[in-house]
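Quick log. Single chain, no ligands specified.
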Amino acid sequence: MQKVLLILAAGMGSRYGGMKQLDEVGPSGESIMEYSVYDAIRSGFEKVVFVIRRSFENDFNRRIIKKISPCIQTDLVFQELDDLPEPFLCNKSRKKPWGTGHALWVARQSVENPFVVINADDFYGREAYAVMANHLDTLPGDSQSHYAMCGYRLENTLSDHGHVSRGVCKVDENNMLANVTEYTQIQKNESGKIISKEKNTALQPDEIVSMNFWGFTPDVFDHLENKMKNFLEEEAQIDQSEFFLPFVIDELISEKKAMVSVLQSSAQWFGVTYRADKEAALTRIDQLVKKNVYPEKLF
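-> predicted structure:
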């Protein structure tokens, strides 16, 4: 069965100050998501679907698709503000994208098999793809609503240059996800403790968090559409509201409509939330190339 990697790459990069999904961090001009594709190919993935905005389709084709298409099947889908389930219409004053739940929903016509969802600007590590690939390979052929998440320690997912948002996960004794609580404005304070300023809450370094590395079966799209309709009925006219994927998963778990295995991995995550994060990303990639984990030129 064909395994599919779906990369959410339509973000506006407001905190980064540009299109971080295309920014170069590798020695031959590679973006972070090219390392994700490379790792996925090594773990047996045969197709990659990119969710982007139509406004940078030409750049994306020239800088990404042209390089990787000889190595893996590719597809592009577009996350646009007016692509909503009927009968909903987009508020004309809205500029902000609808969020990660919507970004996944727009790919519903391009995915027919079990698949993995990731962010374009997060480096997850080869081991994470291997663990997730094994999960997908061992699913029964008729499996539905048994999903998976690759979890990371909170302390390893912070930025030294500003606050971040994370879905903090409660995991039961069977390594199943019990719930996800979204915390925003997370960073270390002056004494080194990790806090969420928005909720005035202290968090533990070893909390397991979601970095939007999910494994799904295609029935998730029906769940998404139902949840998105509920969301739009309540918040469609609020220009800053977003339909977040972790919120959907948390609701499905609480309603006993889905179960989520939490997969442990030794992979080291890093990302580029802020422009100042790029220097650390460049250093990490350089170290991995020198250790022969990656070639100097991926594709």
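The domain at 4-290 is CATH 3.90.550.10 (Spore Coat Polysaccharide Biosynthesis Protein SpsA; Chain A).
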